[in-house]
Specification:
Distance between the termini: 44 Å
Radius of gyration: 21 Å
Number of helices: 7
Number of domains: 1
Helix content: 25-40%
Oligomer: single chain
Number of strands: 9
Strand content: 15-25%
């Protein structure tokens, strides 16, 4: 999993999405056997009442996440996402009718009879509603805004995701530190935050602070002393 996909997955998981990343779309080949059409970077689903850990649906942080994702709370949401380290744009494979059909069939989000209509709506407007009452959307994640407006997808910039995740981490630092998460995106951000917090005493000249997880005190030179 590359770093960009890891950050997107961390953001979606924080806000209640169940995720599958780098999902291979495979179909029967014309000459026999199977062929891989593409890998979908992220597929995610969130139930309507989901919210971030310890936060109500209408908490400002949750509202900010919904704004970034282009949704309102209370509605089940499925995302078919493309993740780029460059411009946030859909690639050609992600907009193929057979690729989207295969993804919807694989996850069983709607009746087989309505898949064709949903795919047509996705390719025209970037979103569709199923008879089961949840939405399906195409979302492009990237470090840069797209070179042109594409009505087929909602755009989320990775810079906004990183800023949101780091703000949440600082707001709920005790919970994040206690989580010991093995998620690669969370782990990357936890390491950065710990490194910055460990560097603060030396940079700002503040008194040594106790590391609650080890019972040690860090001095201004970065050394550690055991408490007796």
């Amino acid at each position: 999993m590359d770093n960009a996909v890891a950050l997107v997955q961390a953001f979606l998981r924080l806000h209640g999405y169940l995720t599958v990343t780098e999902f291979p779309v495979v179909r029967a080949a014309r000459g026999g056997g199977q062929e891989c059409l593409t890998d979908l970077d992220v597929l995610a689903f969130r139930f309507g009442e989901a919210s971030g850990p310890g936060e109500a649906m209408h908490h400002p942080a949750e509202s900010e996440a919904n704004r970034l994702l282009g949704i309102t709370g209370g509605v089940p949401d499925m995302i078919i996402g493309e993740v780029k380290e460059g411009r946030a744009e859909l690639n050609d494979a992600a907009t193929r009718h057979d690729v989207l059909t295969a993804a919807l069939e694989r996850f069983g989000c709607c009746r087989h009879s309505e898949i064709d209509g949903i795919v047509h709506e996705l390719l025209r407007h970037g979103r569709a509603n199923t008879q089961h009452g949840h939405g399906v959307r195409l979302v492009a994640f990237g470090t840069l805004a797209p070179g042109h407006q594409d009505r087929r997808c909602h755009v989320v910039l990775l810079g906004d995701i990183v800023a949101h995740l780091r703000a949440d981490m600082r707001r709920h630092w005790d919970a994040w530190r206690a989580s010991a998460s093995k998620d690669p995106g969370f782990g990357m951000l936890l390491t950065l935050e710990k490194a910055e917090r460990g560097h603060l005493p030396a940079v700002r000249g503040v008194p040594p602070s106790a590391d609650q997880s080890t019972g040690r005190t860090r001095d201004s030179r970065g050394g550690q002393h055991h408490h007796g």
